[in-house]
Amino acid sequence: QKEVEQNSGPLSVPEGAIASLNCTYSDRGSQSFFWYRQYSGKSPELIMFIYSNGDKEDGRFTAQLNKASQYVSLLIRDSQPSDSATYLCAVRSGGSYIPTFGRGTSLIVHP
Amino acid sequence: DAGVTQSPTHLIKTRGQQVTLRCSPKSGHDTVSWYQQALGQGPQFIFQYYEEEERQRGNFPDRFSGHQFPNYSSELNVNALLLGDSALYLCASSRGGVGEHEQYFGPGTRLTVT
Fold first, then answer.
1. How many Å apart are CA A109 and CA B12, to the nearest integer?
2. Among A4, A43, A104, whose Cβ lies nearest the Cβ of B107?
3. For A30-55, what is each residue's pLDDT tens digit?
4. Are A97 and B56 an interchain contact pair (Cβ–Cβ within 8 Å)?
5. If pLDDT is split at 50, 70 and 90, which confidence band does A61 have?
6. Is the CB of A44 less than 8 angstroms away from the CB of B105?
7. With an 8 Å Cβ cutoff, is A91 touching chain B?
8. Which residues pair with A11 in a beta bridge?
9. Which residues of B are less than 8 Å from A102 in CB distance?
10. How confident is the model at residue B12 (pLDDT cuts 50, 70, 90)?
11. Looking at the predicted structure, is the pLDDT value of residue B96 above 80?
12. How many CB pairs under 8 A join A and B?
């Protein structure tokens, strides 16, 4: 059973701070890693994907992948109230076309 | 660039009825995946269609079936609806060839079974 674990939160950070969201996965054969943002009542929006160990930056977002330790994280710099949402981690194994989703971490950015 | 579209946005059905949900993929995408998302949960994979065939299926009963058309659009059918089928149904599209398979979601269909 391939598992993707996320702390459900909520994670509360002040405006302007760095929000750090973490995700661990069980399948060592995992190859592709995705972060989705989901606002309440809306569908998930792909915000980052990473395939190689290390960091990948896109604007205020940085995804960090450590395959040896089987975790992937998402850093949001200069957090804004508009970043308040649930962040879903999704992990795809090498033998599958489909990623497995975690339950998501709720992020609250307060002014 | 047209994104993923789904219809209808909301639907209310009675237990035992049947429902059909529709999805058109993002421009340039040929693969459609369907997910069910209950409140407070991550999306649960139902099945994926590629080249008009079901390529992969999740742990859902046969009451859930689908179809992909030559223009890559897709339908999800659910028969004999149960109260527990109430959820947000998401369609995601991607490029189906060899690659990393980034998926992009449509706005979803909110199904309520009474």
1. 34
2. A43
3. 999 999 999 999 999 999 999 999 99
4. yes
5. very high
6. yes
7. no
8. A107
9. 42
10. very high
11. no
12. 54
